[in-house]
Write a structure and sequence with these properties.
It is found in: Membrane. The chain is mainly α. It has helices at about 1-10, 20-30, 30-60, 65-75, 75-90, 95-120, 125-130, 155-185, 200-225, 235-260, 270-300, 310-330; strands spanning about 135, 150-155. Helix content is about 70%, strand content about 0%.
Length: about 325
């Protein structure tokens, strides 16, 4: 009892409560916070509008199924910014907004691999071009330091397993998110519960393993074919995808760990964890807004299809043959 009194005397009771309701936040906003929330909301809405305009451009200018893939990939930053805006205004919904963003990005990881293959003409053309050629697999995030790994010849089976490796994250992440919500409604799932008996300590590391496993196939494909895609600005496009990954996954995890350790101080009505989530949402809105603008200029244009050197040589040979036939006829 004495320890409880000491605890109550040193810690503000608000630091031990749930995140405040949206109406409570609105009532306590001062002039600076009103401007901050307004600017961040404007950034989020602008990101969404830019994305919608880009979707119209892609739908009109690009063929199917490439346009579907590009619409999915470009939606990563605007969706995360929009969900972060909801989480900023409604702190108690942060778990759901984060799960929605992560589930969407899990699909984007698979779509990036699909885009890399489609840019080279699709699976059949890709296999015609690279079948039997050695692919290096010592790439991040799994085996970047394993230089002794042998090169693996590309085949239809290998391409199939690479696609499965990226697709499993999109499926299992969604399934595990639904399981987490069901456990949360029953009081068995709490992100702040790091005890060995808690569900979070088992589910979150498993999701981390799934994430790394899905990123590896995408990195393998990109590292082996990026030299053919320079004319499509694929390197900066891939860099934007990697940046969204780092900011939405790694940055958020670091902030949450600091909040759980108490490094981020409590500021009533926000507990330490709620304040960490709030800072994370605000940072994500600004970062995703910038990424949305960069992606808009990268994707709001048409690129010439890739022509391999073999195709050029074949066309030149055919042209020479036709010229010889014409000359012979004359």
């Amino acid at each position: 009892m004495e320890e409880l009194d000491t605890l109550n005397g040193t810690i503000d009771p608000a630091c031990l409560q749930q995140p405040p309701l949206a109406i409570d936040i609105i009532k306590q906003l001062d002039g600076f916070e009103i401007c901050l929330y307004s600017i961040l909301t404007f950034m989020s809405c602008t990101s969404l509008l830019l994305y919608l305009e880009l979707c119209v451009f892609i739908y009109r200018k690009l063929p199917y199924p490439k346009k579907t893939t590009l619409i999915w990939i470009n939606g990563a930053a605007p969706v995360i910014a929009t969900m972060s805006c909801f989480g900023m205004w409604i702190p108690r919904a942060v778990m759901f907004t984060d799960m929605t963003s992560n589930c969407y990005f899990a699909v984007v990881v698979y779509k990036v691999l699909v885009l890399l293959v489609e840019e080279l003409g699709g699976s059949n053309t890709f296999l015609t071009r690279f079948s039997g050629k050695p692919f290096r697999i010592n790439t991040g995030p799994c085996c970047c330091c394993c230089m002794c790994l042998p090169h693996v010849p590309m085949s239809r089976r290998l391409l199939f397993w690479l696609k499965i490796g990226a697709l499993q994250y999109a499926i299992l992440k969604t399934v595990l998110s639904i399981v987490c919500i069901v456990l949360w409604t029953n009081g068995n799932f709490d992100l702040s519960d790091l005890e060995i008996t808690g569900a979070a300590i088992w589910i979150n590391p498993f999701i981390g393993v799934l994430t790394i496993t899905s990123l590896w196939p995408v990195a393998i494909i990109f590292m082996n074919i990026n030299s053919f895609l320079r004319s499509l600005n694929m390197i900066p496009k891939y860099a934007m995808y990697q940046l969204v990954l780092v900011l939405s996954q790694l940055q958020t995890s670091i902030i949450n760990i600091l909040a759980l350790n108490g490094t981020i101080a409590c500021a009533p009505p926000f507990s330490s964890q709620a304040r960490g989530s709030m800072l994370s949402q605000q940072m994500m809105i600004m970062e995703m807004f910038i990424i949305t603008i960069v992606n808009y200029f990268l994707y709001h244009r048409t690129y010439d299809p890739i022509i391999f050197e073999e195709d050029d040589n074949e066309k030149n040979t055919n042209a020479d043959l036709q010229g010889s036939l014409v000359e012979h006829t004359v």
